[in-house]
Amino acid sequence: MQVITNSNQWTDFIVHPLHILVVDDDPAFLIIMDDILSVKNAIPYMANGGEEAIALFKKHHPDIVLMDLNMPQINGFEAIAAIRELLGDVFVPIITVNAFEDEKILRQALQCGADDFLTKPVNADVLIAKINTMLRIKLLYDNEHQQRIQLKNELEKSHRLALELSRTKKILEMQNIALQYANIQLDQQKQRLQQEVFRQISELRQKDLKMIEKDREASLYTLASGIAHEINNPLGFIKSSFLTLDKRLNKFFENLLKQYSDESDIQTEHVYIKKILQRIFRGMDRIIDIVAQLKTFSNVDMESVSYTNLNTCINNSLSLLKTVMNNQINVSTCFEDIPEIICSQKDINQCCYNILKNAVDAIEIKQEKLPGAEKGVIGIQTKLVDNGIQVQIKDNGIGMSEDECSK
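Structure tokens predicted for histidine kinase:
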């Protein structure tokens, strides 16, 4: 809102642009007022009743209001009271416009919050003069209101400064008291730092021991790989030789049966030798299977990271633990058809082996402490979930210690 200092108060408004709300239920009066105000470059908002007047006031926040009093539904008195309630401490002039001058009605309008009045028909010059007078009062009120706000802010600032000075004084007093205990606190801090240093040194030693243990495990992997490689070659030779021997024996017994009429003894001997060879083949197949699992478990001939199937890793660990379980533990598996994952197969094998070995140990400890305990059970399940693959391993053992959990 800009104040025009060199305007003619009888022909121009002193505020530009002037936003003015005109309220009347007479459409002809609204048209006349719109013509008068538009010519003077004002921005009028026309309302044909009290309800619309309140809505337009909330939306546009005009500089001044011209209000008819005699209207249906929400009349001018109620609209003035509602607008004053919306304004609070802010001052916006409200001029009533009536077709009659009744002292009682005018007094009621003033009590509701009206500031001046006009009678119909409205004279344009009188209208402009009244509006300018109210605008000057509004400017004075706004200046005074702003000064009150500034004075209030200054008083609050002075009060905050006084509180800050008082707070600073108390802080200085507290600092003087705190300085008396500074040496004691420094000594305590020194002791805490020494304790922390000792703790960290102890943790580093533990980490060194764990690194040594990991190096030992790596050596075991290398040893297992070498043993598996060394055993694999002679096993292949032995199995090949036994296969050749089996073929030759079959051919030999066929020839014997053709030459001798009494076949019963030869047939019995043949069956007996076949059973011995079958047991030998089963033993060799088991050794070959163990060698293959050792090679896989020690990650022989594989890259450090590759595609790995978790179901295969779990089965490898179960095969290595089969002798340890010695048919004293029932193992139930429920494997879904899961995709391969990219990981270190060596680490996954070790992880599966450690968890299953812990389960076996927990069951054995329970059976030692409780001779009549039920037979050991280990349940293993793999399944696909929304965010990956889930592996569940359960046992009915005595539970794991903290050291075993850390593995």
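Confidence is low (pLDDT under 50) at residues 1-10.
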